[in-house]
Amino acid sequence: MNFLEEIQSRILIADGAMGTLLYSHGIDRCFEELNLSKPEQIKSIHEAYIKAGADVIQTNTYGANYLKLSRYGLEDDIKRLNETAVHLAKQVAIDKNFVFGTIGGIRSFKKSAYSIEDLKRNFREQLYLILNANVDGLLLETYYDFEEITNVLKIARKETDTPIIANMSLHETGVLQDGTSLEKGLQHLADLGADVVGINCRLGPHHMIQSLEKVPLLDNAYLSAYPNGSFPGLDEGQITYETDESYFTQSALEFRKQGVRLIGGCCGTTPKHIEAISKAISQLPPITEKQVKEEREVISVLDREGRKYEPLQSIVKKKHSIIVELDPPKKLGIKKFLQGAKALKNTGIDALTLADNSLATPRISNIACGSLVKDQVDLRSLIHITCRDRNLIGLQSHLMGLHTLGLTDVLAVTGDPSKIGDFPGATSVYDLSSYDLISLIKQFNEGLSYSGKSLGEKTNFSVAAAFNPNVKHLDKAVKRLEKKITCGADYFMTQPIYSEEQIYKVYEETKNLEAPLYIGIMPLTSSRNAEFIHNEIPGIKISDSIREAMLKAGENKEQARKEGLAIAKSLIDTAYDLFNGIYLITPFLQYELTVELSTYIQQKERNVTHE
Ligand SMILES: Cc1cc2nc3c(=O)[nH]c(=O)nc-3n(C[C@H](O)[C@H](O)[C@H](O)COP(=O)(O)OP(=O)(O)OC[C@H]3O[C@@H](n4cnc5c(N)ncnc54)[C@H](O)[C@@H]3O)c2cc1C
Ligand SMILES: [Zn+2]
Q1: 416 alpha carbon to ligand 1 midpoint, in Å?
Q2: S-S: 226 plus which of 91, 132, 135, 264, CB 3.0-4.6 Å?
C-alpha cells in the first residue's frame, strides 16, 4: 500500500501529540530519550493512536537532532535514538498504517540564534539517520521560520523520493512569521516538492480553520492540519490544555470543508481527539472544489490622507538639510522646550529630533513632546526609539502610537545601556537589536506586525539609523551601515564628530552608500564639558587640538561658549562641502546655540545661491 495513492482517494487521519501526552504522564525531560529507557511507553502511545483511527503515525524523533539533544548532553546517542524510534513505531504499526519520521523545526521568534548553515547541518544528520531506518515518509513539523523550512525541504527532496509532509506553525491567523501569507507559503513548499503541505501546533482548530479559508486547493500537493488541543493554560505550574474532544468532531468536519486531506493533532491532543476526528470524517469523501475567502485590503496611510512631510531622505538627497536635536526635559515642565522648538523652527530647520531617554536617563516621553511640537509648533519631529526600554510588546504598541499621532519620522537605535544612567539597576530589555527594530518598522510599513498579523493599515515610517564613526576600524562600522540599509534604513545620523580629518574620512568611507548621512555637530560649552564628553561618553572622541582650544578659552562661560560655537562652525564648514545633511545637537536645552548654528548654515546657503 502506498501513501500517495491512499491520500489521492480519501481523507487520512494522523496521530496526535506525543510530547504533551508524555508530559501529562508526569515526564518532564528529553522525550526522545524515552525511546531507549521506556520503549514500552512510547509503543503504547503509538498503539493508542492507531486504535483511535490514525492511518499515519509519527516516530518519537521530533527533537532527536544534534542542536536539541545537546541541551541534555545526549548528542552522542543521536543514532540510537532515531533508529530505535523508527523501530518502535514499526513494531506497532499494522498493515494500514504509514510510519512517518518526524523532524522538528529549530528557529522560533529569535531568528538569529542559529545560522542557516548550522540548521542545514543539523537537519542533514537526522535526515540520514531516519531515512536509513526505512520510513514510509518524512514529517517536517513546527517550522515557524520560512527560511528554515524551505532550506531543509530542499535538502530532503534532493536526498529522497519518499513522501514528505511539510507543516509550518503560525503565531497569527493566516500569516507566517516573516509576513508571507499562508497561501503563498504553502504553494512554495509544494513547488519545492513537498507532497503534503500544511500547518501544525500553536493554533487550535478555530484559528487554523480561519487560516485555511484563504488557501485554495493546490494542484501539486494535498493540505494537512495538525491543530493543538487548545491554547495552553497553567495549573499550579503545570501546562494544561482543554480536553473537550467532542469539539474536534465539529472541527474535523470544517477542516474537511477547507479541503484538508490529512488531519491529526498537535500539542494537547490525545487519542480521544483523534478518535473524534476519525469518527467524524474517515467515511466522508474529500471535497474537490473550494471557494476561497477574499483577502481584505490593507489601506495605506498614503492612500488615506497623504504624508504631512516629504521624507527626510528625499529632501537631503536634493539639497542641504538641517535637523536639530532638542531633547525632552529631564524634569516636568515643557515651557522652555517649546520655546526652543519655536526658535529653531524660525531658523528654517527640517526637523526637531527627540532622543529616547539618552544616556539611559528618564526624560518626558519623546512621543508626548513630539506630538506637542507637531501640533503647537507645526514642525516635524523625529522620534528616537531605543531597544532598551521596551520589550517586543511595548515597541509595537509604541509604533502604533506614533502612527496614530502622525509621527512618521523615527530613528531606530540600540540605546545606551541602563547601567550608565540614573537607574543602573533598571533592566535593559533588548528583545530586538537595532537591525531587528529597523526591519520591524519596515514590516509595519507593509501593514504587518512582528508576528505577521495584519495591522489593518500600512504605516508610513521613514527610518533613520545611527552611525558611530568614532571607532578604531571605520570600515567595520561602515559594514554595519550596509547591514542596516539591507534591513531598511533610509538614512543615517552620526554621533557628533569633533575633528575635520574625521569628517573627511567618513566621507571617503561612505560616499558610495545609497543612503544619505546627516553629520552630527554638537557645540561644546566649556573645557569641562569637552573633557567629560571625550573621556566619559561612549562613542564620542574629541581631537586634541579642539580640547586644547577649549582649555585655552578658560573658565569664563561666555568666552568658552564663543569658542565652542567657533569650533562647531568650522566643523560645519567642512561638513557642508561634503554632505547635504547636518544634524545639530543642542547641549543642555541651550537652544540659543543651535539657533545660532542653524542660522549660520542658512546664511551659508544663501551666500552660495547668490554667488
Ligand atoms: C544619532 C544617534 C542618536 C542616538 N539616540 C539615542 C537615544 O535617543 N537614546 C539612547 O539611549 N541612545 C541613543 N544613541 C546611542 C546609541 O543607542 C548607542 O550609541 C548604541 O550603542 C549604538 O547605537 P546603534 O543603534 O548604532 O547600535 P548598533 O549599530 O546596533 O550597535 C550595537 C552595539 O554593537 C557594537 N558595535 C557598534 N559598532 C561597532 C563596531 N564598529 N565594531 C564592533 N562593535 C560595534 C557596540 O557594542 C554597540 O553598542 C544615539 C546614537 C546616535 C549615533
Ligand atoms: Zn505542538
Answers
A1: 7
A2: 264
If one counts every other C-beta atom within 10 angstroms of the C-beta of residue 154, the result is 13
pLDDT at 251: 94
Q: Is the CB of 466 under 6 A from ligand 1?
A: yes
- Comparing CA positions, the residue from 87, 131, 85, 125 lying closest to residue 106 is 125
Could you identify the residue written with the cell 529653531?
Answer: 344
Q: Ligand 1, residue 354: give the atom nearest the CA.
A: 8
- DSSP, collapsed to helix, strand or coil, labels residue 46 as helix
| 386 CB within 6 A, ligand 1 | yes
Backbone angles phi, psi at 520, to 5 degrees: -75, 125
Cell 513630539 sits at which residue? 370
Please, is 341 exposed, middle or buried when counting C-beta atoms within 10 Å of its C-beta (0-12, 13-18, 19+)?
A: buried
413 close to ligand 1 (CB < 6 Angstrom): yes
DSSP one-letter string for 61-98: -TT-SHHHHGGGT-GGGHHHHHHHHHHHHHHH--TT-E
Atom of ligand 1 nearest to the CA of 471: 41
- β-strand pairing of 457-458 with 137-143: unpaired
Profile the chain (611 residues) by mean pLDDT over runs of 10 residues: 94 97 87 96 98 98 97 96 98 96 89 87 98 98 96 98 97 87 97 98 93 97 96 79 87 97 96 97 95 69 60 96 97 96 97 95 96 95 97 96 96 90 88 95 94 89 95 91 97 96 96 96 95 82 93 94 97 98 96 98 86 63
Cβ–Cβ < 8 Å for 411, 384: yes
**CA–CA separation, 19 vs 45, rounded Å?**
10
Q: Is the CB of 415 under 6 A from ligand 1?
A: yes
Residue 92's closest CA among 122, 48, 134? Answer: 48
Q: Is 267 annotated as a binding residue?
A: yes
Q: Residue holding cell 467532542? A: 246
Tell how far the Cα of 18 is from the centroid of ligand 2, in angstroms: 9
Which residues have CB under 8 Å from 354's CB, separation 6+?
325, 326, 327, 328, 366, 369, 370, 373, 381, 382, 383, 384
Measured distance CA(186)–CA(5) in Å, rounded: 21
Q: Is 30 annotated as a binding residue?
A: no
Give this complex's ipTM. 0.86
Distances (CA, A) of 38 to 72, 101, 188: 17, 19, 39
Q: Is 201 marked as a binding-site residue?
A: yes
pLDDT of residue 303: 45
Q: Which residues pair with 117 in a beta bridge?
A: none
Nearest ligand for residue 361 CA: 1
Please report the pLDDT score of residue 5 as a whole number. 97
The Å distance, Cα 204 to ligand 2 centre, comes to: 10
Q: How far is the CA of 392 from the centre of ligand 2 (A)?
A: 23
